[in-house]
Design a protein that fits this description.
By secondary structure, this protein is mainly alpha-helical. Helix content is 66%, strand content 8%. It contains 5 helices and 4 strands; from the N terminus they run αββαααββα. The strands form 2 sheets. It has a two-stranded antiparallel ribbon. It starts with a helix and ends with a helix.
């Protein structure tokens, strides 16, 4: 009876850890793609060029200012030390180029998001080619890269430190 209880508890802990890991890894992937994710919050992830209150593809004033405003003036502007002349100049520049600037920012975001997806696919492909025995990688189902033996030996040596 006691062993069944311990076994059930271990399965529960394993399940909880896997779900927590899955939740955290999903958030980390979203962050890598360029989303703002606040853990343990009801706030839905939003694109880093946007804000939680705007539509999905609206580029925030802050993002436009950070990217296209003079760096020194941007710092002063954020600290409330900007001048009306400099602000007016930027607002006029923004008025004339907002669509172009917004498109550039959205295109950069989408390219980054696509590159992250490609990297994830490549890593999944590599992991799927591994041959696993007792939780350890013992080889690959494809042609082994020349460095794999060194990695496997190092991994085994590191695991032996804890035994």
């Amino acid at each position: 009876m006691f062993n069944r209880l311990i076994n059930g508890f271990n399965h529960f802990i394993d399940f909880m850890i896997r779900n927590l890991f899955k939740h955290c890894s999903v958030n980390d992937v979203l962050r890598e793609k360029g989303y703002v994710v606040i853990d343990n919050s009801d706030l839905k992830p939003f694109k880093n060029y946007s804000s939680p209150l705007s539509n999905d593809n609206d580029v925030s004033f802050y993002t436009l200012a950070k990217k296209y405003m003079d760096e020194d003036y941007f710092e002063r502007f954020i600290n409330g030390e900007g001048t009306a002349t400099e602000s007016g100049k930027f607002l006029m520049q923004l008025k004339n180029n907002k669509e172009k600037y917004s498109k550039e920012i959205i295109d950069e975001f989408e390219i980054n998001e696509q590159q992250v997806e490609e990297q994830i696919t490549a890593v999944k492909s590599i992991l799927e080619s591994f041959v696993w025995e007792n939780g350890l990688v013992t080889g690959t189902s494809e042609e082994q890269p020349n460095y794999l033996d060194k990695i496997l030996k190092w991994n085994k040596n590191m695991l032996n430190l804890f035994l």
